[in-house]
Amino acid sequence: MDYKIKDSRLFLKLKIIPGASKNFIDSVKNNELIIKIKAIPSKGKANSELIKFLSKLLRITKSEIIIIAGKTSRHKLVSLPETAFIFFKRYLTGD
Is 8 helix (H, G, I), strand (E, B) or coil? Predict the structure, then answer.
């Protein structure tokens, strides 16, 4: 999976699948981390749910999660604190 660390930030490509029965990380496909989200893609609800989910999962504040690109798309580029790399390492490196 493609990722980049720059200026103490981790940049990840995500594919969000809204309307799931629960929030969870599903898999890696086409260099994107697939995350299923409960919320529907209406008026930013899925983005808000994604940020809330990642915040709880990584134990970071919501303000530390930035959607760089794809605010109205299922394909997103997000910026997270570099410390998130430790959590995502198994997805990013296959370890």
Answer: coil
At 34-69, the pLDDT tens digits run 999 999 888 889 999 999 999 999 999 999 999 999
Which overall architecture, per CATH, does domain 3-93 show? 2-Layer Sandwich (3.30)
Question: Which residues have CB under 8 Å from 91's CB, separation 6+?
Answer: 1, 25, 28, 33
Is the Cα dihedral 22, 28, 32, 33 positive or negative? positive
